[in-house]
Amino acid sequence: MNDVLLQVTKSPAARNIIKSLGLPIPLPEPLARPKGPWAALPLEKRTVVVGAAGSSVLLRAVATALAEAGASPWVDAAQGSMALETFTEAGEAFARPARRDDQRSTEARIDALVFDASALRDPSDLRALYDFFHARIDRLARSGRVVVLGTVRVTSPEQAAAQSALSGFVRSVAKEVGRKGATANLVLVEPEAEARAGAVLRWLLDRQSAFVTAQPLVVSLRARDAGRPLWVRPLDGRVAIVTGAARGIGRATARRLAAEGAHVFCVDRPADGDETSAIAREIGGTAVLCDVTSPDAPAQITAALGERGVDVIVHNAGITRDKTLARMKPEAWDAVIDVNLQAAIRITTALEASSLRDGGRVICLSSVSGIAGNVGQSNYAASKAALIGWVDALSLRLASRGITANAIAPGFIETRMTSAIPIAIREAGRRLSALGQGGQPEDVAEAITFLASPGAQGISGRTLRVCGGALIGA
Question: Given 87, 265, 380, 450, which residue is catalytic?
Answer without folding.
Answer: 380
